[in-house]
Amino acid sequence: MSINNNMKPVSKERLMSVLVSPRITDKAYRQSESSFVFEVLADATKYEVKSAVEFLFNVKVDSVNSVTVKGKRRRFAGRVGVLKSFKKAYVKLMPGEKIELLSSGA
Question: What is the CATH number of the domain that holds 32?
Fold first, then answer.
């Protein structure tokens, strides 16, 4: 178990569920090799994201920035709807660390 800033233990089950999926977009891909974007749970803290990345990928994290993206309004067949909101985290790794999200073999 890891201990967060509030001295509340974070279980391994929580760490395994914090990261929902990697956000692989053109903008995220163009960033430096040591920076990655993940979609995370809406109630996840920066410390939980950092602990989860370090636990799952065995790397050292330098910093975490998080953003809550509000859902956009969309029209479909004359009705107005809203896409769901989500939270994403920008994770910067320490120099020399690397995560292999995409397989480079073709």
Answer: 3.30.70.330
